[in-house]
């Protein structure tokens, strides 16, 4: 039986069309919700990926340069004169005069100063008088011994007495030699009253003036003069042990001085200590060079450039490319997938803003120019330099 509107009467079940519509609406709602969740998840993933990419540190890659066929070793050296002497007064006295001042170029045995020696002069007078006396006594003893030897022939004197006279003559002869030696010693000391140059060279110090008390009797005795033969110069260099095998007699070097910029001076290695100093781990070598014009100053500093054959596999990198860790030095490379790989290296010479790598790094390997201190193995980085193969 139908109601007044013509709708079928039943048990309250919704019409079939209305149920279909509700199912479609619910499905659409589920699709909308799922699509919104998918879009949100996708956006989150993209944002995270973008954030991860942006969080990667930007690095610049460089290629280490080889040392080259001629491996130049640059070390500091100390210059010394070929001969150096500090001249003290050998006898006590007062400076009478000085003849040469600092900077004087003097010849060997040239007189530098004269010392008044009044006490020594009196000792010489006394020694001469003593020598005259013992000579007279010796002459008397010789004549006495000769007379007793004649008397012995006629048995006028005993053999014992004759032997005593002969021994007395020999004793006086020995006294003559002793007095003569004493006078000779004083005269030799007197010759030291004139201070002379031990070799040809320059006077580098003059510490005594007229009237100064000098010699053994002076308090706080100081050298009267200092001299140096600067016509040739010795250069002493401490070479690190790793380069000691390349040091040999005849090895040439070039000197550069701060007081003569742009000018070089040749030198040649002559000697070495053949022992490694335990404190510095270095070998001391000696070079020599001529010094025309006295441009090289003893006691001064020189930059010594050795041209060593065969640089081998040594590479040069900037100092900022090193990663310093507790277990040693490393450099940072970048793998094909953009990850950091730390390579241990052995450092050679420190060249100031650059360092020499003796081993651990293959030629042609690109490394990070200035890695941050926090860089770690496997860390993702972004290479920003287009010219990744640029040399330092």
Strand and helix map with partners:
Blueprint: H1 16-55, E1 58-59, E2 61-62, E3 65-66, E4 70-87, E5 93-98, E6 105-106, E7 111-116, H2 118-153, H3 159-191, E8 194-196, E9 201-206, E10 213-214, E11 225-240, E12 252-256, E13 264-277, E14 282-290, E15 301-309, E16 315-318, E17 322-325, E18 328-334, E19 340-344, E20 346-350, E21 354-359, E22 367-368, E23 382-383
Parallel strand pairs: 1-23
Antiparallel strand pairs: 2-22, 3-16, 4-11, 4-15, 5-7, 5-10, 6-9, 7-8, 9-11, 11-14, 12-13, 12-15, 13-14, 16-21, 17-18, 18-19, 20-21
Helix pairs in contact: 2-3
Describe the structure.
It is a single chain. The protein has 392 residues and is an alpha+beta fold. The chain has three domains: 58-68 and 313-383, conserved putative lor/sdh protein from methanococcus maripaludis s2 fold; 74-81 and 232-309, Efflux pump adaptor protein, beta barrel domain (Elongation Factor Tu (Ef-tu), domain 3), CATH 2.40.30.170; 82-196. It contains three helices and 23 strands. The protein has a six-stranded antiparallel β-barrel with strand order 4-11-14-13-12-15. A four-stranded antiparallel beta sheet has the order 3-16-21-20, with no helix packed on it. A four-stranded antiparallel beta sheet has the order 8-7-5-10, with no helix packed on it. Strand 12 (252-256) and strand 13 form a beta hairpin. It starts with 15 loop residues before the first helix and ends in a 9-residue tail after the last strand.
